[in-house]
Amino acid sequence: MKSHCPSRGMVLPCQFVIESPGPRGDPMFRIDRLRAAMAAPALALALAVSGPVHAAASKGPDTVADVAEKVMDAVVNISTSQNVAPSRSVPAPQLPPGSPFEDFFDEFFKRRQQQDDGDQEQSNRRPRRVSSLGSGFVIDPTGYIVTNNHVIADADEIYANFNDGTKLKAELVGRDTKTDLALLKVKPEKPLVSVKFGDSDKMRVGDWVMAIGNPFGLGGTLTVGVISARNRDINSGPYDNFLQTDAAINRGNSGGPLFNMEGDVIGVNTAIISPSGGSIGIGFAVPSSTAGPVIAQLQQFKEVRRGWIGVRIQNVSDEIAESLGIGKARGALVGGLNDDNSPAAKAGVKAGDVIVKFDGKDVKDVRDLPRIVADTPVGKEVDIVVLRKGKEETLKITVARAPEEEKTAADKSKPQSADADKPVVKKVLGLEVASITDDLRRRFKIKDTVKGVVITSVDRNSAAADKGLKAGQVIVEVGQEPVSAPADLQKRVDALKKDNKKSALLLISDGEGQVQFAAVPLN
């Protein structure tokens, strides 16, 4: 058995992976060994804590048997197989001619190569395969099944194993890597037992939930717990909004359903935090509010069509909020626009705007906006509320479809005229800055379209260094006013100090033109 994730003590996809090189590599053989190895310590642990566990259980639901009986047959075990190329032999080290070890290593690696050649010939007759076990659930009696993308990624064959022993080959309908969801389709002889998505937004911390899946390949297994937290960001993608639960989720539970007490799916079990690879009561599920629309689009279009407005955003810190004069830190700060033809550009959104509301929904922080925009229908015109120089403005914006690769369009502008040969250098805020010359553009690989003053060095003990500023970056704006020379930068900083501002809000660009804001203290 090998871990799907090589690291320990981190967020892990709850998938069970088995290598099957020969007869003793059969999945059931390994599972039987696992059962035997786990039985003794599991029994000892149960006896050691039987009192507290019983007391806690008595405060929970009397039974979940009726709900479990209704939904159990809709949960399936997903098994996949993948051909793995035979490993290559280790090359012999290159030793200097005449080395005392040369003859030794030549003989050793000659024998090793002969052995590898024999193993390779045998491997060609019996190719090695890797099998993975996960979970899924039926959402349509005609055979549509939901699971995690990482469960079926790179699989050559996918099978759905049902509670009654039926095994059906599954075809991939579509997948979404950003939410780690996939939709499969089987062809049953009769309608299947199915479940439906519930409303995860109604779930509160402390509500009871039930997980069913295929942990460690053991088959349909039910665990009960509560919602431990909502809206968790585990840095797995741009739309992280996980439900956290203490219902036991282990390897093999990936793709399985998390039910409420009415038997509706309010989450898709996806990952765990574990130092050992087993459950420690910290599991994560994609909420149905995210999974439902994604699966509906995969079923209809075989792909996901997300809304997009073409802005690059960043978090609003307390320092940035003070610099912008907006009071309490909130919303998503627009660091830049993807291109002049993006929906945001056409609507009049500008770098430095703070988006606080989109289509009537509050944008509390930078994580809210991508999810709200992505869930907005393509082509819909909505109101977007921004804070600009401390004042609230409402703009109209038409949501477009997100491009497959969210990259800035290639710059097609003509080169600008050359700057003066000798740069003007000035020291401000612990930075040494200069006007941009052709030599500095070549040195720092700055595109011709990037305008401002270039940072040539940073005092390592300065506040600017603490904010991550470094040589080669270009200061485009100070306090939302453009700067084109070091003197402009000094003038803006002096004006901010005169106004008793605590920090200077700098718009910083890299050589490619990607921008972000940084609030540098003035003291």
Describe the protein's architecture and organization.
With 523 residues, the protein is of the alpha+beta class. The chain folds into three domains: 1-87 and 99-304, Beta Barrel (Thrombin, subunit H), CATH 2.40.10.120; 307-401, PDZ domain (Pdz3 Domain, Roll), CATH 2.30.42.10; 425-521, Pdz3 Domain (Roll). It contains twelve helices and 31 strands. The strands form five sheets. Strands 1, 3, 4, 5, 6, 7, 8, 9 and 10 form a nine-stranded antiparallel beta sheet that branches. Strands 25, 26, 27, 28, 29, 30 and 31 form a seven-stranded antiparallel beta sheet that branches. Strand 14 and strand 15 form a beta hairpin. It is an enzyme of class 3 (hydrolase). Substrate binds at residues 150, 180, 252-254. It is found in: Periplasm.
The number of distinct helices, counting runs of at least 4 residues, comes to: 12
For the termini, the CA-CA separation is 58 Å
> How would you state the average pLDDT, rounded?
77
CATH class (first level) name of the largest domain = Mainly Beta
Subcellular location: Periplasm
Region (Disordered): 113-134
GO cellular component, one term: periplasmic space
EC number: 3.4.21.107
How does the SSE layout of this entry go?
Elements: E1 2-3, E2 10-13, E3 16-20, H1 27-48, H2 50-57, H3 65-71, E4 75-83, H4 102-125, E5 129-140, E6 144-148, H5 149-152, E7 157-161, E8 167-169, E9 171-176, E10 181-185, E11 208-213, E12 221-232, E13 242-245, E14 257-259, E15 265-274, E16 283-287, H6 288-301, E17 307-308, E18 311-315, H7 318-324, E19 332-337, H8 343-347, E20 354-358, E21 361-362, H9 368-374, E22 381-388, E23 391-398, E24 400-401, E25 425-428, E26 431-435, H10 438-444, E27 453-458, H11 463-466, E28 474-478, E29 481-482, H12 486-498, E30 503-509, E31 515-521
Antiparallel strand pairs: 1-3, 2-15, 3-5, 4-5, 4-7, 5-6, 6-10, 7-8, 9-10, 11-12, 11-14, 12-13, 13-16, 14-15, 15-16, 17-24, 18-19, 19-20, 20-21, 20-22, 22-23, 25-26, 26-27, 27-28, 28-29, 28-30, 30-31
